[in-house]
Amino acid sequence: MVTLKDYENGETAWCPGCGNFGILQAVKKALVKVGLEPYQVLMVSGIGQAAKLPHYMKCNLFNGLHGRTLPVATGAKIVNPKLTVIAVSGDGDSYSEGGNHFMHAIRRNIDVTYLVHDNQIYGLTKGQASATSAEGFVTKTTPMGAFSKPLNPIALAISQGISFVGRGFSGDIEHLSTLIAEAIENRGFSLVDILQPCVIFNHVNTYQWYRKRIYKLDSSYDPKDRNAAFQKAQEWGERIPIGKIYTQDRLTYIEHDPEIESNPIIEQKHSLNNFNKILEDFKI
Amino acid sequence: MNMSIDISFKIGGEAGQGLQTIGYILAKSLARGGLYVFTNQDNESRIRGGHNFYQIRISDNKVENLTEEIHVIIALDEKTIIEHKDELVRNGVIIFDGEKISVKKYDENLLNVPFERLAKEKSGSTKMANSVAIGAAISLVGYDHSFLESVLKDEFGSKGAEISDKNIQASRAGFNFVSENGIGEFPYRVKKIGDSQDFIFLNGNEAVASAALLSGCKFVSAYPMSPSTSIQQFFASKMKDYGVVFEQAEDEISAINMIIGASFAGARSMTATSGGGFSLMVEGLSLAGMTETPIVIVICERPGPATGFPTRTEQGELEFAIYAGHGEFPRAVFAPGNVEQAFYLTSKAFNLAEKYQIPVIILSDQYLADSYFTTERFDISSIKVDRGEFFTESQVKKLGEYKRHLITESGISPRLFPGQKLGLVVTDSDEHTEDGHITELADVKINNVNKRFRKLELLKKNIGTPFVYGSKDADTLLIGWGSTYGALKEATKILNDQGSNVKMLHLSEIWPFPVEAVRNELKIPDKSISVESNSTGQMAHLIRAETGIEINKKILRFDGRPLTPQYILREFRKGR
Ligand SMILES: Cc1ncc(C[n+]2csc(CCOP(=O)(O)OP(=O)(O)O)c2C)c(N)n1
Ligand code: SF4
Ligand SMILES: [Mg+2]
Q: For the domain B201-382, what is the CATH code?
């Protein structure tokens, strides 16, 4: 039986009190919940404080470029569908630099779990506005307050027909780990947007700020109701819902081509004889 | 040249008039009689209208390039006559439909064949006019109609017997019309010279794509861009039969990152693009270098900068391919000169990529990508798949826990694919420890740089020597690379036939640069000329950078059109 201990690894380079610690804890717990061993898991991360997370646990890891987690995760999943593939990064990486990949991963419904540490700021580059920073948010690059409207990743995901989307809070590890476990078990592309206080650069969206506002969706809420979900996705400000916001059954990328699953690419033994016919196309 | 048959056809018209089909059918009919065929197309970047042409050269000797001397023009519009009549050799003929085009103003050798009327008489519709035109051309050169018939059957058979029969009737009508109303004895004649069984007919992109499949490439992700798109489509068309996967990415950044993910997870993977798309891939290229992930990138060059001439040719990205990417890391760059080289070098590219865990670039261009060649059937049995060193059960004792970036003497760290109990596979685009975790230690960085570049030293031993042709102790050296191989070879031969003393040096395995081999050939730098399809002489730069030898003379073409032997000769003589 796999335990939390199997996932423990080394020291972190995060600031004391950072929301990332809670997320790390929740990820490990979720993996134990779903009963996966580290060798079965491939994490793909980008660049940023969030993207360092997989270095602080045990798993296979491709720590790639800023913004490019999803293409790497997609390529790996297609050729080896047996891997549990989790992409993890910050809000800058995921919603700005990698924004295009995010939309297309939803369309493709590739069976990858996407964890976004949403601290509404660029941490690693020391405090610039991100795509989810609030209007008027003052940072080093928005000294007069951010003008652009914040992106609403959850509404965007629902509008594009994502298979699973939820919002978690790094200050509630138990709730978050359950949500992540559900996302991993969901077949199809799953997004968990995680509210993550950055204690150094974001003095607005603090633990306290969140604790005052968040509430958990309970069983009276039906995440399969798309219109209701769309409304939930707009709730922000005085009250912020966390939990599973929307889910739907959708054929996944792997399911649409059963060959990929029954005869995984990395298990195919390449034999020249099978390919002899290729040159027949060119015969005169 | 001492050829008994060396004839070129040019078919001109608007986009959408079916030039490609006519050209392909005519070319294939000629190839069926055992003739060597080379074709190329010149298209504007549009779907209808404008002026396009398709050129076919045939010979009883191997032909691997265009020539500017045309024997037969098939004009589907008046513009073709205006633009190309001067390319006709003496006694050359223009076949055209005099009921569609009025030609009173021209005094060239004109052969009026009513394409549309004959098509309508034979098949009830003017749609088959193109088949009439092909039949007419076949008759003009005295070739056997039966080859054309069999090709029409193959090409239109899938659309039903009626369609293929009607096309055959139409082509025969054109054939008979010319036999009866021809222009007397046409001096340029073609006959069957042998069997076509041992030959194949394909273009550069098909050579690359089929080599990739045969070499075990299982995953291609790419974003459509001329002139690379047909590689993507060929691979995609084989998904069902061969269990491989093509995924059209949302952009080229995604494409290269997808193949990196697929390769990391265990599949031979490739992408194909042109210069613009490659520009977007550059950060990913560097990622492959850092994470030591094997990938193959095909760049089909077209004229730049920016969107340039989207459907034409240039060799403007040699230095870009070699130097692209931030930071320093080993890579290989190949630039095939014909379909055979495209085939075998693609196969080699996959082996080197995996053996040395590096990115390998195949640098092609529109001219090679879209040109069809007849060539001897490729020797499939010579394809060997070498996936390099792996971490196995038996090494656990010796090497201990798996370390993806283990420092070794060769610089090669045995690979393991994620998902196995044998170990965790960890890599990072940040500088990393042997086990793949992020680090900022100075000596780790130094060790890693040295490790990665030790692979380059081994890689160098795999680079083939450049191709040399012509007179041994020549007083002039023509230097070229990539797709200009055929034109350069013919120019060299013509010059030597006319009494000059010329040698040609052609590079197809360009990086790591074969320094010694090139230096040995560059004994007469003052009499050496770099011949390239670009405006700055990038090979000359590279030679200077790598050997210290300066090549001052250059023959350059950068109007988007392919280099021809005639162009080289004109420029060569100017310099005398
Ligand atoms: C192509 C590229 N552009 C910019 C950067 C610099 N950069 C590194 S992390 C980062 C933003 C980090 O913000 P976020 O993704 O929200 O992660 P956080 O540090 O907040 O967890 C930027 C801009 C980079 N590494 N690569
Ligand atoms: S800068 Fe912010 S996000 Fe980064 S580790 Fe510190 S608290 Fe966490
Ligand atoms: Mg952030």
A: 3.40.50.970
Task: Give the SS3 label for residue B315.
Answer: coil
B2 has pLDDT over 50: no
Q: Write down the number of H helices and E strands in chain B.
A: 20, 21
- pTM, 2 dp: 0.97
Q: Do B201-382 and B467-574 fold alike per CATH?
A: yes
In angstroms, the Cα distances linking B509 to B64, B334, B503, B547 are 19, 5, 19, 16
Domain ranges of chain B: 6-181, 201-382, 395-460, 467-574
**Yes or no, beta carbons of A39 and B374 under 8 Å apart:** no
- Please indicate whether, in this complex, the C-beta atoms of B418 and A83 are within 8 angstroms of each other: yes
Q: How far is the CA of B425 from the centre of ligand 1 (A)?
A: 24
Low-confidence ranges of chain A (pLDDT < 50): none
* Ligand 2 contact via A125 beta carbon (within 6 Å): no
Number of domains in chain A: 1
A4 belongs to a structural domain:
no
Q: Where are the beta strands (DSSP E) in B79-198?
A: 88-96, 110-112
CA distance A39 to chain B (A): 5
Whether pLDDT at B80 is above 80:
yes
ipTM value for the complex: 0.98
pLDDT digits (tens, 9 = 90+) for B135-182: 999 999 999 999 999 999 999 988 999 999 999 999 999 999 999 987
Query: Do B210 and A104 count as a contact with CB atoms less than 8 A apart?
Result: no
Q: Which amino acid is at B159?
A: K
Q: Which atom of ligand 1 is nearest to the CA of A20?
A: 21
Q: Which fold has domain B6-181?
A: Pyruvate-ferredoxin Oxidoreductase; domain 3 (3.40.920)
CA gap B380, B337 in Å, rounded: 20
